[in-house]
Amino acid sequence: MEQQNKRVDDENIERDLDAPVNDVERLEHDLAEDGRDVDIEVNFKPVRMTVRRANGLQIKEGAIAQGVKIEANYQLARLDGRDSDRSVEVKDNEEVNLHDGECFVATAPDVNS
Hints:
Elements: H1 2-18, H2 24-32, E1 38-42, E2 45-49, E3 53-55, H3 56-65, E4 75-79, E5 87-90, E6 95-97, E7 103-107
């Protein structure tokens, strides 16, 4: 019986390894629920987020709570690399996946960049 159970387990593992990963939402959910913090930067200051998916306002609020000198009405953008001039705006209600080492810049609304 034990040998039969081992064979079934081995077959399940092989099937799982061979199966293509098509369910992006499931993977994102798994990442969001894995319990690990994410270390990002906001205005080049370290910010530890306890979730792997957050909207722009949550990112700014997390940064403010950790001492980054910004305000909730600031505009948030994700940098394309730490020293990049390229950035993509992240709106307050827009959810994004967070990754360790990712950099964001928050600017006062009257500053055009």
